[in-house]
Amino acid sequence: MRTNREIIAAHYDAAAHGDLAGMTADFAPEIRWIEAEGFPTAGRYTGADEIGASVFAAIATDWDGFGMHADELLESGDTVVALGRYRGIHRRTGRALDARAVHVWRLADGAITGFEQIADTRLVADAAEAVGA
Question: Are 129 and 104 a contacting pair, CB within 8 Å?
């Protein structure tokens, strides 16, 4: 059986390869997902379908090469914390993003039950805004 850290590492690996099915493979049916206030996809979402449509699809539409580059995964019981950076190019503005981010993952019985994003949303907004806007 995989550790919780390995489950989250597999999510990031799938994301790096554009594998949506792999990204959501370990999601519990009622996973609760929180995007930070001030982030373009800010809000609370439940279930893989809603997360896919409201978060993953929106990011894929607006960003080229967007991803969380997790430098460190810290596991404590049913919680995994990812420390890393968001990187990508905003499609409309062409501006690069490189912002510190933290993800807090909750798991139970080998399934991902919760996610919370903590990020420097100002840097995300700066990349999404046209220069001089």
Answer: no
**Closest-CA residue to 103 (of 2, 12, 10, 6):** 12
Pick the CATH number of 4-128 from 3.30.390.10, 3.10.450.50, 3.90.1150.10, 3.40.50.10860: 3.10.450.50
Listed in sequence order, the residues at least 6 apart from 121 whose beta carbon sits closer than 8 Å to its beta carbon are 36, 37, 38, 39
Task: Count CA atoms within 13 Å of residue 49 on its CB side.
Answer: 2
Q: Could you identify the residue written with the tokens 């890393």?
A: 84
Whole-structure pTM value: 0.94
pLDDT, tens digit, 9 for 90 and up, residues 50-99 = 999 999 999 999 999 999 999 999 999 999 999 999 999 999 999 999 99
Neighbouring C-beta atoms of residue 68, cutoff 10 Å: 21
If you average pLDDT over every residue of the chain, what do you get? 95
Taking the C-alpha atoms of residue 79 and residue 83, their distance in angstroms, rounded to an integer, is 13
3-class DSSP state of 94: coil
